[in-house]
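Re-run with default settings, no changes from the original entry. Doing this only to confirm the output is reproducible before filing.
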Amino acid sequence: MNPSPPDNPPFGGKRQVLLALERFSRRRYRLIFFLAAALAALGAFLGPRLKIESDILALIPRGNPAVDTFKEAAETFGALSYLTVLVDAREGTGPDEIEEFGDALAARLRERSDLIESIEYRIDPGAGFLSLVYENALLFLPPGRLPELAGLLSDAGIARQIAQNRLSLNSPTAPLTEDLIVADPLQLMPLFLDRLVGNRGLVQVDLSDGYYLSKDGRTLVMLVKPVAPWQDLKFSERLMTTVRAEVEATREEFLSAGETGIAESLVSFAGHYALVVDETRLIRQDIQFNIVVSLGAVLVLYWICYRRFAALFYSSVPLLVGQALTFALAFVVLRSLNASSSAFTALLMGLGTDFVIVMYARYVEERRLGRGLAEATERMVGETGLGVFTGAVTSAGTFYAMCVSEFRGLRDLGFLIGTGILFCAVAIIFLVPAMITWNEGVRRRRVDVVPKLHVQSFFVEHLMGFSARHRRPVLAVIALLTIVGGFLALGLEFDDSVNVLRSDKSPAYKVEKAMQQRFGVAPSYMIAIAEGRTRDEALELTAQIEGRLAPFVESGIIASSESVLSYLPSREQQEAVLAAVRADATRTFDPDRVEAAMVAALENNGFEPEPFAPAVQRLREFLTPTRTIDLDDLESRGLGRLVERFVRSEPDRVRAVTYLNLTDPQWKRLPPPGLGDALSAGDPRIIVTGTNVVSRE
């Protein structure tokens, strides 16, 4: 027969400290309750004031050139800085209705200059735009398209177009207006329209109607450029609230006018401004859901185990106080929660439950052995509490090890869980004996509580006995399960895409996925940044990038690319056009011949030449370029916003970006082999990056 354990096992100084804490909690239970309530109130006050960080790129470590360049480019060039508004036609309506809705909504949004910088949703050629086309458009044409222009400027081509203009003006359904015919009598603008306004980056739109429409004509795209970055959560929330309010006001405007078909146009949102608001709301909901569900699960577990209403409070109150303290610490130290660290609430509830189960089970055991309340709580804290606190310290250390990670999400999560475990352990050590003392010792009770004390073992004692009697079979089964589990683990895939951190429940995320189908959005995109000391140097590097892209475009790896050279040809190309015009021996581009043929065609078709005099003068300038044009010329003609999308000048450097649209979804995770090296060609002034590069790094 084994000897009985001593009544007071020697635990030395550590046990004495725990016993002192137990006596303090038991004797000063009112003070403990007051402090716990105050700390819980503090956590409840500071917790909702935590900033929700939904910028996934902020979670990625700094120090890698490709990663840092991508994050900086996303912020600098505004690749992520548009709010996309989609207007969908209802059944029975079409482009006319959504275009009218878009016009009315744009007019309202333009009045909110405190929030919105610009809105792009239609082609709107102003005076500066037309001037740019007529004076410089010849330089925008690749040398290979000069024969096409020559055909339009031939005597026969001019006569044919002027005759078509006369027929168009006589038709009641003519797509051309009189003003446009007077401004562009030879209809040369379509020759240059694709280059100047036909590229919309990742979104492929139909411009035939003058609006950014989907290919089926049932969805209108509006690109809203706000005045502040999307990382400013308060601004993004205010922006989305305002835009939604203006959408509803636009609906009411058409409803009051009896235009039901227009008013019922569906409006949805995409882009990082909508994403950050959606994901912030979802993270907050997840935090609340995790607390409620995990707390509910803990309470159910305790009811099954102990079958006492009081046990529910013994278990839940210390854990809630520990959670509150963790929220307060997060506010003071981290100031924000992110998609990873917001999961700490459920983990803390589950980990802290173990400590309470062990503590309270020891108390129940001591009381059922006949010991009084004070002696039972002393043994609960003085003996079991030492193991509980040791377990808390080792568990916290496990999570604190995550704090050395370079990834902010893991670092924050490890810090919060590690510290939260210690807070929960301290709360349990102080609160459990205080609550038991008040409920079962101070408060008057009609019946003795000892007969009610119960611990559900879930037949564990039978399983332990079975395992002891059949050691070898049990060990063999466990070893087999371990081997099988390890083998199956080899089949686990590592999803290294940063997008998996996004919630698929976000409406904006779902809209973005749908846009890939409706607008032919490329499955993935990358960017190449060229950095030079001057604009000319940056543009020269960009031209080199375009030249090196050709093999990847021909092989189908890259669907398309877009840079400032999509709108402003390189200096070499412009000089080639100038040389071709100067070497013209057939007088194809002779302004005197073209003017004479045009005046003759106007008179033959019954037009007065005088109204067309400004167009003739612009035509002469267009056909007699004297120099190449540069970015300054674009900016002086009102295309500064376009330039800013691709080129940013700083005191010590100029950077130009090229967007690469990839074809295959497989490139969402990893960049195409050799693409980065081929485009940079070892030049440190060129860095190729993207979300797939970030994932790889």
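Residues 86 and 359 are 58 Å apart (CA to CA). The first helix runs from residue 12 to 27.
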